[in-house]
Amino acid sequence: MNAPTMIPPTMIPPTMIPPTMIPLARPPLTRAQMAARVAADIPEGWCVNLGIGIPTMVADHVADREVIFQSENGVLGVGPAPAREDIQPWLINASKAYITLKPGGSYVHHADSFAMIRGGHIDLCVLGGYEVAQNGDLANWATSNNDTAPAVGGAMDLAAGAKRLWVVLEHTTKDGQPKLVETCSYPLTALKAVTRIYTNLAVIDIAPQGFLLREMAPGVSFDALQARTGAKLHLPD
Amino acid sequence: MINKIVQTMADAMAGVPDGGIVLLGGFGHVGTPNALIDGLIEHGATDLTIVSNNAGAGREGLAKLMALGRVRKIICSYPRSAGSVVFEELYKAGKLELEICPQGTMAERMRAAGAGIPAFYTPTAAGTLLAKGKEEREIDGRIYVLERALRGAVALVEAWEADRWGNLTYRQAGRNFNPVVAAAADLTIVQAQHIRDLGDIDPEHVVTPGVYVDRVLHLPYGDPSIEGK
């Protein structure tokens, strides 16, 4: 395997013009707007597993489309969170939050749940991430090689097993460092697994040539986006 | 007559050895065999390896077992979670060995053990830190990791219904790891909310057939607490 390495500050790629030099014309998308943007691309009929954080919010935005949400603790057909008085004490999702079950839903045990995932029966998994590399490598489980007790949960199984892996994350860290990079510096969750990235600034596909820009949020210019991205952005032919 | 129903916790725990691997059902606070874990504490078995998705929360149940120094090693996918204070303390002090295992791989390792499969290839974790030291092999152009079956000396299970043959049903998300661990151990001990007469559980609804179960203890504690939620 390739040992993850930190990129020293002196080696920041030449594409990295300080982002503040090219300001954004409008504020970036909010978390809810990012979730809504992801949801807009999910067609009726897909079976979808949502990770913790912004991915969980995607379910609130699929509107009338029938999408089957899978939770890896063995629930198929997850519905919205219940009102407090309607909580069913035995019905939780993989984040241990109370959920409801839609008509048509079902329960399986953990081995079946992950067989479903590993066997390619889940159309889409949406996960959060620390970094995505231009070849589709994902880092989302450990922030350091020195953390000897990171929590992986089902992330590696989902990243390796789902038919499509979309990652939703802020385009940069709070310090303005790009999360879309040439090579991940954090420990990897899965190699060459990500197929599409949704950030608060853009929608980007992982293509053979690298990051392929599909869409920019309102008020974002190509130069401003490139300045905030750690690897070359390609435009569709 | 086959009768796997035992009357006391002492009978349920009889013969649980020191030094063995103990598989725990449960995910989060649902479907976790907490009464049996308390019984294991009372029984006194020590030097245990625990297989559980989480490394315990708060000070009760698995956390208490660990705090008493009965656990040598824990195999889990998600050691750090809200309230995993005992794990943190022991791990930091070097008093607990940890093996991180992806959740699906952990489930499949136990499923394989129950099905007599010694090892299997999975794409999960290929090329990552968690594949370190394991055989990796390319099959039809994709890299897979060889993972070994994970068998327990004992499995502790929480079920919704049981009968004297050991047939089991589960409740909603309380199913989770329970049927998986039930099939993967030499001695499978069940705590059940309801005991049914033989034949009263619809055969179409049995999730774990009694062939996997050794002992059943009736523990009708009710619903898991939703306090603080």
TrEMBL record, chain A:
Keywords: Transferase. InterPro entries: 3-oxoacid_CoA-transf_B (IPR012791), CoA_trans_fam_I (IPR004165), CoA_transf_AS (IPR004164), NagB/RpiA_transferase-like (IPR037171). Pfam families: CoA_trans. One of its GO terms (molecular function) is CoA-transferase activity. Coiled coil: none annotated. Belongs to the 3-oxoacid CoA-transferase subunit B family. This is 3-oxoadipate CoA-transferase beta subunit. It comes from Humitalea rosea. The lineage of its organism: Bacteria, Pseudomonadati, Pseudomonadota, Alphaproteobacteria, Acetobacterales.
TrEMBL record, chain B:
It comes from the Bacteria. The keyword Transferase applies. It holds the Pfam family CoA_trans. GO terms for molecular function: CoA-transferase activity. Transmembrane segments: none annotated. The keyword Cell inner membrane does not apply. PROSITE patterns: COA_TRANSF_1. InterPro entries: 3-oxoacid_CoA-transf_A (IPR012792), CoA_trans_fam_I (IPR004165), CoA_transf_BS (IPR004163), NagB/RpiA_transferase-like (IPR037171). Keywords: Transferase. Belongs to the 3-oxoacid CoA-transferase subunit A family. This is 3-oxoadipate CoA-transferase alpha subunit. It comes from Humitalea rosea. The lineage of its organism: Bacteria, Pseudomonadati, Pseudomonadota, Alphaproteobacteria, Acetobacterales.
